[in-house]
Specification:
single chain
Length: 374
Amino acid sequence: MRVWLKPDKMAALGISPSQVHDALAQNNYLSALGRTKGSMVSVNLVANTNLQTTDDFKKLVVKEHNGDVVRLGDIADVVLGAENYEQDVRFDGKGATFMGVWVLPTANALDVIHRVRVALPGIQAQLPAGMKAGIPYDATEYIQNAIHEVLKTLAETLLIVIAVIFLFLGSLRSVLIPVVTIPLSLIGAGILMSSMGFSLNLLTLLAMVLAIGLVVDDAIVVVENVYRHIEEGRPPVQAALIGAREIVGPVIAMTITLAAVYTPIGFQGGLTGTLFLEFAITLAAAVVVSGIVAVTLSPVMSSRFVHAHGKEGRLTRWVNAGFEWVRRVYARMLDGALTMRGAIVVAALIVMVGAWPLDVARLRSAGNQDAVHV
């Protein structure tokens, strides 16, 4: 309730602002008087003098002298206004009322906005005629776009990894072995995420994107070793057994090394550790699952999918021929570099010495910029 005083009328009637304040305080009061009892009934007595409408406030007596009564409506404009006039809300150029929906830390923002949109038609049906409800700003649109981009990147990464694996293995059947490791590793990481209460958010999706390129390493090493034994004339099953036994130690070492690199990120203190805990655990879990798959499922699949006796198809021979050409070119370049070792060392020293003035100039430029900012 807003009471806008009229100084000219207050001065003419001899009323001060403090008198208006006292009148409002004394007449807008709620007090318990006691209780009355009868033989069968007990009633609580309440002196309810609180004012409810603008007319009630306008009729409020501010001053009485010699039978003359001055009411609040005589010296002020009484209106039902806004709580404060420091901000103005507009929606499509029209006056509006803003209501923010703040998500609790334990709630899912996407789930909350979905429920708000479901409840909005029911709220609209209860509003007075001519009043409309809408959502002018939705912060979850950024989250949706970010998740869409991450999923797009995830798909692109998966296709690139498959293409690279195919180029190096040269066989579509052999590509299936490390490719199967990708979904199994991500599913295993998802199971661990669910057991630890992690959600599917930007950090966990980022961990999965990075994990795709890591989880196939162990399976590729196993397949290549099994393929080598098959080329040497061993049966596929025997080649898988021998190849897996030879490579199990390095695979375990690779898995532990990768997990040990990323896991400590989640155990840092402060905000960094809290933010990256889910990222570190998800990535480490995917790597560990890939190592388990590499020493169990990959040898079994290699005994079934790798061509017996190292048989190569036309596409495989074409890919191998391409890599053989690259190998020969690299060998000639390496032989040429080894014949002029002295010149290469001198060139490297010249580059190092030439980079020193550039580094000094960069440091001076950075120092001058800091001085200007100060």
